[in-house]
Every structure is written in structure tokens, then in C-alpha cells.
């Protein structure tokens, strides 16, 4: 039987694994609602209920902000909302694991933007290889929907912007900043969801299911991530998080029956390797791919 010290050491890693799996399960559950309320409606559920939950927990109105800080939080929240919406729009036609893999190229590109070491160009080549295997460059059974790829690419760019804008709010309380940012996101995404889904969005049973999407996709992963960050070095955290596209592919296979072609698995492996390698060979503890909950 493992000792208490061993269990204590393993708890943060178990929490991170749980966060990744719960996040992917939440996305799979969300995708099952697309035929009923559409991707914009489901995104409205996630962002809207997440904002309410975060407001209840953090009560950000207790801390006054300067006009400059409010502007920074608003920009951060707007990008967060559009990123979530783009991710769900991509999920309409692209398997979960591949959508996450394409989205990962955003923070990966940001991390490699100032590459100086020769090894970094190896990771750039790996990421480019993985992305080239996923882009709809030729017709065929394994080709991805170009519109879905476009939305996933938009989510990648928005994730990179999310990281940049998030750093501008780094001096503020993290929980309250996320609460205000998610509220801003809700003000953008919820009206789009209502316009798309109409009155169906307010059906009591669907509201309960939408709350489940928010809990699985945001509340639980965010809480587990906080536990993980307290016990895992940031570099190790980033490396482990790099496995999220593979986890998404496995969860998509198990819950949604999304079978990937061998080349698509190879693409995921290349992007995962590029992300992990970048973190391991970049000086300093911080990683551009640390943000978990945006996905």
C-alpha cells in the first residue's frame, strides 16, 4: 500500500490528469448537444453558466479596478469568449482530438516566436509537419472540413492572444480576473447563442444539461488545475499538458466514436512532441501552453 507521502506527491499529477480528462469529457458532452441547440447555443451554455459560477465563487465586485485594468480585463474576456465559440464551431465537423491539436499550435507558435536555439527549429518542423497532415490540402476520406479547420485555426490564434492579454492582468487577483473575463465573454457569446438557438435554449432540461457542460468543461477542470499547480513545477505541468490533444483523441474515440486515420494520429503525435520539446528546451519555468481551461 502506498505511503501517505507517496499519495501526497501523486495527488497533483492525478489532479492534472483528472483536469485534462474532465475537460475533454466536457467537450464531448457539449458536442452531443450540437444537434439540439447548435454549437453557438452550447457555447452560450458553457460560457454563461461558467460566468455565473465564477461570480458566485469569487465575487469580483469586492475589488475596485482602475479604468486601465477594466479595459485589460474586458479585452481578455472578449478574446476568451471568441476562443470558446471558435473551438465549438470547429467541433461541429472535426474530431475532438484534431481540433485540440490544431488549437495547440497557437500557444506553441507563441512559445517559438523568439526561437534562438537550433533544437527549437526541430520543434517548429515537427509542429509544421503535424499541421500539414491535418490541413485539407487534398480531397479524400481523411481530409478535414476546411470550414472546421478555419475555426480551429481561429481558436489557435485567439488562444495565443488570450495568453498575451492574460499576462497584462497578471498583477490582479487570478480568480476575480477570470470571473470578470468570463462575464465579458458571456456578454458576447450568450446573445449569439440565443440568436442561433432561439427559445430552445431556455428549455429546463436543456438548461440542466448546459449547466453540466459548464461544470465539466470549466468548474471541475479549473479547480483540479489549481490543485495541480500547487504541487507540480510549471515546466513539468506544461509538458504533461502537452498530452491534451492525444487525450482528446482517445476521449473522442471512446465517447463519440471518432476514429482517426493513421496519419491523423501521427499529426497529433508530432504536435504533442513539438509542444513538450519546446517547453523542455526553453529557458525559465514559464510556459506559453500552461493555460488549461480555455479549451
Total number of β-strand segments? 0
Largest sheet: none
The fraction of residues assigned to DSSP E strands is under 5%
- String of helices and strands: HHHHHHHHHHH
Q: Roughly what percent helix?
A: over 70%
Radius of gyration: 19 Å
Give the terminus-to-terminus CA distance: 36 Å
What's the mean pLDDT score? 90
Uncertain stretches of 5 or more adjacent residues? none
Question: Which descriptor suits the 3D outline?
Answer: globular
How many individual domains?
1
- Assign the structural class, choosing from mainly alpha, mainly beta, alpha/beta, alpha+beta, or little secondary structure: mainly alpha
Can you count the helices?
11
Describe the structure.
This protein has 295 residues and is mostly helical. It has one domain. The protein is 77% helix and 0% strand. The chain contains eleven helices and no strands. The protein has helices at 4-32, 34-58, 67-91, 96-112, 118-134, 146-167, 174-197, 204-231, 234-241, 244-256, 262-281. The radius of gyration is 19 Å and the shape is globular. The mean pLDDT is 90.
Concise synopsis of the structure shown:
With 295 residues, the protein is an all-alpha fold. It contains eleven helices and no strands.
How are the elements arranged and paired?
Elements: H1 4-32, H2 34-58, H3 67-91, H4 96-112, H5 118-134, H6 146-167, H7 174-197, H8 204-231, H9 234-241, H10 244-256, H11 262-281
